Amino acid sequence: MSDSGTQSFHPLRLTSITPDTAIACHITEKLVKAGAISSAADDTMTTVFHRLVWANKLELVETLLRVDSTTKVATRFMATSGWNNVIHPIATAVGNNKGGMAMVALLMSFGGCKLVVTKEDFDRSMAAQLSTLLLG
Question: What is the pLDDT of residues 46-93, one digit of tens each?
């Protein structure tokens, strides 16, 4: 949240509201080439990548998997919800009532997304949340 009480949006997240998917994917490619990364996280430690999985933006997620080298990290980074509650992007896709099975298939076909959450992945996500709470 910004000081004015409005939520700020990462440029890659804004592509999710672009009505034309082909244009949104083209913009995504340009943003990544200009330095935008899908592993950037908000104050709840939810990455841009995870937000797009939650929104079931299949074509945008596929584009990021193809063009953004940071998506491998983002596929393993868990969003936090309260203390000690984390959710993995694949779990978001499985539980998505917006037709998430295609998203599950896409994530499973990508080598970086794992079904098993390792202790290291969990610890990394919790450490990021803790540092945000301490610094925030």
Answer: 899 999 999 999 999 999 999 999 888 888 788 876 666 778 888 888
pLDDT of residue 135: 55
Task: Number of helices (H) and strands (E) in the chain: give both, helices first.
Answer: 8, 2
Residue 1 lies in a domain: no
Structure tokens at 50: 């995870």
* Structural domain of 127: 11-135
In three-state secondary structure terms, 31 is helix
Q: How far apart are the first and last CA of the chain?
A: 11
Question: At 115, which CATH number?
Answer: 1.25.40
CA separation, residue 11 to residues 18, 32, 87, 126 (Å): 11, 10, 23, 25
Provide the pLDDT for residue 119: 79
